[in-house]
Write the structure tokens for this entry.
Amino acid sequence: MFTNHGTQQAGPAVGILGIGSYLPPRVISNEEVAGPAGVTEEWIVRATGIHTRRRAGADQATSDLATIAARQALERSGLRAADLSLVIVGTTTPDELVAAVACRVADALECSVDTAAFDVSAACSGFLTGLATAEKFLRGTGGHALVIGADVYTRFLDPADRRTVVLWGDGAGAAVLGPAGHGHGHEILATKLLSDGSRADLAIIPAGGSRSPATRETVDGMAHHVHMDGRAISRALLEWVPGMLDEFLKENDVDKADVAHAVLHQGNAKLVAHLGGVLGLDCARLHATAPVYGNTGSASVPVTLHQAEREGALRPGDLVLMVAYGGGMTYAFTLLRW
């Protein structure tokens, strides 16, 4: 059964004032992952379109990647950590089960104790889920928020599982939100969040939680690694996401021909290209980072948006559509006026 959160906006306009991203410097080639996974480099490219991905250093946790991206976003926005009233991190690979990554980031940035900080667990939809949450928070209270998507999935992969190890990379992306309008900021026009818990087992880390706490058996059984049925997820996306998008655009009186840029979750490069066509976004430029960064989880949307900005692809007034989906299943849609 699907649940959803509507898109109607109220209160003063809120937009993105600055964005940033961080990808660890270590590049992992297809050659490095192919052998242990029992596949060839050619098979990886043919199946996923991914050529490389990044891996966090042994001394780096999710909060470290998130903090670097956050500092970039703050610098671009012209704001200080003291200006923030809210920090949200979308992640499913936290430093530890407790405390929240957002609290660690807020501390690293030296935010005031008046700054609220919490994580959202929506898998690869985490950044857009956090964006929707923060946008509505700011419409009611004013102020500024920092929203981050960050994951270190390479710590949770079985090197012998070709279904997962060839896909995932590590990274973080961040955005500072605040008052928008009159040429200031990139206004968030609409957001929508949906979920379908009946498909929760399609992408899961089975052990380490309250249902299956860590034991020798769970460790030996690789139950602390990502288990994913990629084909079933692809079928679910192709079945449901086109209709969800049509409804979202209709609710906001937007024609697909008006969408200038599409930033989709980078599950893998082949899926991004195929899904972009199925969604009927023929007039939009489809941005992709999966070929070089792989699937960076909740970081993939902000990382890809930041790359589009750095490339100079986004022009004032352009309509940007962001779409994410993740384990749960979770789905998120955002319209942004650049």
Observations:
- The chain has a mean pLDDT of 94.
- The chain has ten helices and 15 strands.
- The domain at 1-338 is CATH 3.40.47.10 (Peroxisomal Thiolase; Chain A, domain 1).
- The longest strand covers residues 186-196.
